[in-house]
Specification:
globular, 6-stranded parallel sheet, about 10% strand, about 35% helix, alpha/beta, single chain, two-stranded antiparallel ribbon
C-alpha cells in the first residue's frame, strides 16, 4: 500500500511539474499565425514575420460557396485554392485597388467548370476574364479533371471587347503587423502543450513526428528571428516527376478549359500557378546535396499566352533582394508576393487589351 502511495505521489508530482512548465513557458508564447509553425510545432517568436506587411482593412472581393451566389455581374471570376482566400493580404485586393474591377472567387475544388459556363449569369452577363489558380503541387491533378470528366472540347473564339478603363481610386493598402499576444490562458496552454510535445520529439528524441521541417539558407530571406532558415513541408522535396504522368491529361484539360470559357468571344482564360515555397528558395539552400525539383520547370508546355508566370516573377523578386516574398511561418506567399501576382495579371490584361 505504501508503494502504491509513493507511485501516486510521483505520478501527481510529474503531472504538476509538467503543468508548471507549461504555465511558465506559455507566458510569452505567441499565437500561431502560420500553418507551418502550427503543424510543425515551431515557435512563432522564432519564425513569425516581424516587418509590417501591406494589407487591407476590408476585403474588396466577394466569395461564393456555390453558383447560387453568382447572381450579378462580375468583371473577373477567380477559381482558386487557399492562395486566393486571404481577405487581408490577398492578391485580388491589390488587383481591385489598382483597377476598380469587380471580382468573385470560387474554390477550385468545389466548382464544376461546366456548371459555371452554363449558368444563367455567365450567359447573360459574362465576365471578361476567368482566372484558374492553383498551387504548384496539385496543379496538374486539378487541370486533369476536365479531361477525366469528358467535358466538351470546344473551340475558343477571339475576344473582341473594347478595353475597360481602369479606376485607381480604390482603397490603398496599409502597413499591418503580426499578432504577437495570445490573450486567453487556456489557448496559451493548449498551444504550449502542442508545441513543446512536438519539440521534445524533434529536439530531444531526434524524431520529427510532423510533416514540417527546416533547412538553412545562404542568407537572410525573412524578417523572422531565424531569418536564414526556411520552414517547409517535407512532401515538397519529392521529385516533381511523380506528377508528370498527369502532364498529358493536364494539357488536354487546359485546352478544354480554354475552349469552354472562351467560346463566347467575351471571356479570356488565365492560368495562375503559385510555386511551392521550397521551389522558390531552392537555389538559396545551404546544402547543395538537397535537390528540389519543381513542376514549374515544365509549364513551358502550356500556352504561354494563357499563363501568368509567377515563378519567373518571383525569381526576379529574389534577384532584387525582396524579403518575406513567402511568409517565413506559412506555406503561402506574403502580401509582397500577392502584390506581384496582381501586377503580373494586370499586365497580361493590359497586354491583351482587356483593360487600359
Amino acid at each position: 500500500m505504501k508503494n502504491f502511495r509513493y507511485y501516486n505521489a510521483a505520478l501527481i508530482g510529474m503531472v504538476v511539474a509538467y503543468m508548471l512548465v507549461l504555465v511558465f513557458a506559455s507566458r510569452d508564447i505567441q499565437p500561431f499565425t502560420g500553418d507551418l509553425t502550427r503543424l510543425g510545432g515551431y515557435p512563432e517568436k522564432d519564425y513569425g514575420w516581424n516587418t509590417p506587411l501591406l494589407g487591407f482593412e476590408n476585403r474588396l472581393f466577394d466569395f461564393a460557396n456555390d453558383l447560387s451566389q453568382y447572381n450579378r455581374h462580375y468583371d473577373v471570376i477567380i477559381i482558386g485554392d487557399s492562395f486566393s482566400r486571404d481577405s487581408v493580404f490577398g492578391w485580388q485586393n491589390f488587383l481591385i485597388s489598382q483597377t476598380g474591377l469587380s471580382v468573385l472567387t470560387f474554390h477550385v475544388d468545389r466548382l464544376n467548370i461546366d456548371d459555371l459556363v452554363n449558368s444563367p449569369q455567365f450567359h447573360s452577363s459574362p465576365p471578361f476574364a476567368v482566372v484558374y489558380q492553383s498551387v504548384e503541387r496539385v496543379a496538374l491533378t486539378r487541370l486533369s479533371r476536365p479531361a477525366m470528366q469528358r467535358l466538351p472540347d470546344l473551340t475558343p473564339r477571339t475576344i473582341s471587347l473594347a478595353p475597360r478603363n481602369m479606376s485607381r481610386t480604390g482603397p490603398t493598402p496599409i502597413p499591418l503587423t503580426r499578432q504577437t499576444e495570445e490573450k486567453g490562458f487556456v489557448e496559451r496552454m493548449n498551444m504550449a502543450s502542442n508545441m513543446y510535445m512536438k519539440m521534445f520529439f524533434r529536439d530531444v528524441l531526434g524524431v520529427n513526428i510532423t510533416e514540417v521541417a527546416t533547412l538553412p539558407l545562404k542568407k537572410a530571406w525573412f524578417s523572422s528571428e531565424k531569418s536564414d532558415e526556411i520552414v517547409f513541408l517535407q512532401s515538397h522535396l519529392l521529385p516533381a516527376t511523380l506528377a508528370l504522368d498527369r502532364m498529358e491529361s493536364a494539357l488536354l484539360g487546359a485546352r478544354k478549359l480554354k475552349g469552354m470559357i472562351e467560346q463566347n468571344g467575351n471571356t479570356k482564360l488565365y492560368l495562375m500557378f503559385f510555386p511551392n515555397e521550397i521551389s522558390v528558395y531552392r537555389d538559396q539552400l545551404q546544402s547543395p546535396e538537397i535537390k528540389v525539383a519543381s513542376l514549374m520547370d515544365h509549364f513551358d508546355d502550356f500556352n504561354q499566352d494563357d499563363i501568368v508566370r509567377l515563378d519567373k516573377a518571383f525569381q526576379s523578386a529574389l534577384d532584387a533582394g525582396l524579403v518575406d516574398l513567402y511568409l517565413p511561418n506559412d506555406t503561402h506567399t506574403s502580401s509582397v508576393g500577392y502584390k506581384i501576382a496582381a501586377e503580373k495579371l494586370m499586365g497580361k490584361m493590359i497586354e491583351d487589351k482587356l483593360i487600359r
